[in-house]
Amino acid sequence: MDPIQFSEPASTLPPRLNSPSEPISGPPPKRRGFWGPLGVVGLLLAKLGSKLPLLWGLFKLAGPFAKTGLTMLLSVWVYGLLFGWQFGLGFVLLIFVHELGHVFMAKACGIRISAPLFIPFFGAQILLRQELPDAWVEARIGVAGPIAGAAAAGFCHLLYAVTGLPIFAALAYVGYWLNFFNLIPIVPLDGGRIMASISPWAWLLGYALMAAWFVLNLLRAFYGVGPELGPGTLILLMVLVVSFPRILRLFRKSTPESLRYYSVAPIRRWTMAAIYFGLVAGLWWGMHVTAGRAETRSDESDGEPIQALKTPPLGHPSAIAGSNA
User: Fold this and answer.
1) Does residue 268 fall inside a structural domain?
2) pLDDT, tens digit, for every residue of 277-292?
3) CA triplet 7, 13, 14: central angle to 5 degrees?
4) Residue 16: predicted pLDDT
5) How far apart are CA 302 and CA 165, in angstroms?
6) Of 64, 155, 146, whose CA–CA distance to 99 is shortest?
7) Which are the contacts of 163, defined by CB distance < 8 A and separation ≥ 6?
8) d(CA 127, CA 38)
9) 80, containing H or E segment
10) Cα-Cα-Cα-Cα dihedral of 65, 10, 148, 99, to 10°?
11) Inside any domain, residue 228
C-alpha cells in the first residue's frame, strides 16, 4: 500500500492579492512575480554557504514542535514578501488549523503521525508513521482537515462581519477556497482520501478535472489570455503524477488485501458522503458570500488610503494558475 501523507497545497490560494501598502490611485503597480521572493531565498542560502550542513543538522535535532514553528515562521516570511505580513500570518494559521484537524483525528484513531511541516508555496504536510488499517480510518483522518479548515475560515468570516476589516474577508475567502480545492476527489488531496470510503472510482472524476485544469492553465498562459504559470500549475502537475499509480490500480484485479481495505459498511459510506457533500456546499456558499467583499477602503482617522486584499472572481481558473498574477 502506498505511503500516506496529508498535505495542504498552499499555492492553490487565489493569487490576485495586492499588498495593503500599495496605492489605490495612479497606474497599476508592477506585478511582483513568484520568482522574486525565491531569488531572495536563494541569495540567503548562497550567503550561508558552508553553514548549511550545520544548520540542517541542528534542524534535524530540533523537536517536532520546533520544526513546525520554524517552518511556520519561514512560510509567514515568504508569504509576507508577496502579500504583506498580515495576510501571510493569517494564511499560515489557516493552514495550521487545517493540519491540526488531521493530527487530532489521527491521534483519536490511534495512528502515529509526524508533526506538521510547512513548505512555502507547497503548504504543509503530515506523514503517517504506520499503515492505515482501512479506508474508513483514512477517510476520517482526511475529512478532519477540511472540517477544521472550514471552521477557521468561518471564524475569519465572523471577524469580518463584526469588524468590517477587509483582511478578514480576504482570509475567509481564501480559507473557504483552499479547503474547497482540497475536496477534489483525487489522491493525495483530502477529497481523494474521503472518496476511498465512498467510491474509489470517483478518483477518475477528480483526475479528469485536475488534468483539464492543468491543460487550461497551459493554454491560457501560452496564448497570453491568462496569468503566467506559477507554483499553482506545478501543484496541479505534481498531484497528477502522484495520483496516477492509484488510478491505474483501479483497473487491476482486486487482491484480498485491497478488498478488505476498501470494505466499508453502507451506513459509514452514507455518513461520510453526507459530510463530504455538506462540506462542498458549505464551502461553496462561503466563497460566494465573501467573494469581492475585500474592497478598497480608506482610513477615516488620518485620510490615508488602505488597499485591501482582493480576490479573483469566484471559480476563476487563474485562482490556481500561479501566485504572480
Assistant:
1) yes
2) 999 999 999 999 998 7
3) 165
4) 43
5) 16
6) 146
7) none
8) 26
9) helix 64-83
10) -30
11) yes
Residue 325 lies in a domain: no
Contact 296, 170 (CB under 8 A): no
Strand, coil or helix: 236? helix
Q: String of b and e for 274-288 (b: at least 16 CB within 10 Å)?
A: ebbeebbebbbebbe
The domain of 180 spans 5-24+32-320
Residue segments in the chain with a per-residue pLDDT below the cut of 70 = 1-65, 294-325
Does the CA dihedral 277-282-287-289 come out positive or negative?
positive
What is the model's pLDDT at position 198?
A: 95
Q: How far is CA 29 from CA 15, 34, 176, 321, in A?
A: 15, 15, 28, 20
CA-nearest of 5, 238, 12, 14 to 121 is 12
CA atoms within 13 A on the CB side of 47: 6
* Dihedral in degrees, nearest 10, Cα atoms 46, 47, 53, 54: -170
**Domain tally, the chain:** 1
The predicted structure's pLDDT at residue 8: 55
Closest CA to 62 of 117, 6, 120: 117
The pLDDT value recorded for residue 263 is: 92
Which tens digits make up the pLDDT trace of 203-260?
999 999 999 999 998 998 888 887 777 777 888 898 899 999 989 988 988 889 888 9
Is 101 within the bounds of a domain? Answer: yes
- The SS3 of residue 22 is coil
